[in-house]
Design a protein that fits this description.
With 215 residues, the chain is mostly beta strands. It has a single domain, classed as Lipocalin, CATH 2.40.128.590. It has three helices and 14 strands. Strands 2-3-4-5-6-8-9-11-12-14 form a ten-stranded antiparallel beta barrel. The chain is globular and about 45 Å long.
């Protein structure tokens, strides 16, 4: 039970939002910035170094694999996270849709997989993962997207929008995510808050630090 609760609390880059039917955008939302961020994010990551220096943080493996490369409505990534000691049993599986905004920002929209997500466990190892699915089959997490903006030529950062990402996990009313992306690492601070604004889950000291292990 303790392991299960720990897994639920580690919702990197998104949290528990409202699920509605998704309709992919008609307009072309692909841009050089979208392509760059997708390239930075793609790969396999580990928080092992952080977990060894601070016991508050768990040893998490994170995989992000490009999918549906023929589409022109942005870039899509299959995302899988697991505890290192149970790497073949991911506690979190998502699809990210990276789209361009007119202000130059890149938003990472977050989706659940349909049905039993575990049937797709390990899909990041495949050459063309999730080819059996269509974007219209995904379940969006409304309000949980992260809007990234350039902080420098080598770093983009962003967060969810206030209390818009609804969450009921462990007494929470909403969740927040703060994310920074570079070519070599991703930091993600995901927290749940009750209706009074008190934190009820997530790391308290700062974000998880994921170091890229391979592309």
């Amino acid at each position: 039970m303790k392991y299960f609760i720990q897994c639920l609390a580690l919702c990197a880059l998104s949290a528990c939002g409202t699920v509605t039917q998704y309709e992919p955008p008609i307009a072309n939302q692909y841009s050089p910035q979208v392509n760059m961020i997708a390239g930075w994010m793609a790969g396999s990551y580990s928080s092992a170094a952080q977990s060894q220096s601070d016991s508050e943080y768990k040893n998490i493996v994170l995989h992000m694999k490009p999918i549906w490369m023929d589409r022109t409505d942005g870039r899509w990534l299959y995302v899988e996270q697991a505890m290192q000691e149970a790497a073949d049993k991911p506690y979190r599986q998502r699809v990210y849709h990276l789209v361009h905004h007119d202000d130059g920002a890149v938003e990472s929209l977050v989706f659940e997989l349909p049905g039993d997500a575990l049937q797709y466990a390990g899909a990041w190892k495949q050459a063309q993962p999730l080819n059996e699915l269509l974007p219209s089959q995904l379940l969006p997490r409304s309000g949980c997207g992260v809007k990234l903006k350039a902080k420098s030529a080598t770093q983009w950062s962003g967060s969810t929008d206030g209390d818009m990402c609804a969450s009921s996990l462990r007494g929470a009313a909403y969740a927040t995510s703060e994310v920074t992306v570079t070519e070599s690492d991703i930091t993600s601070w995901d927290r749940g808050f009750d209706s009074a604004g008190k934190q009820v889950w997530g790391a308290t000291k700062g974000p998880y630090q994921f170091k890229k292990q391979s592309q």
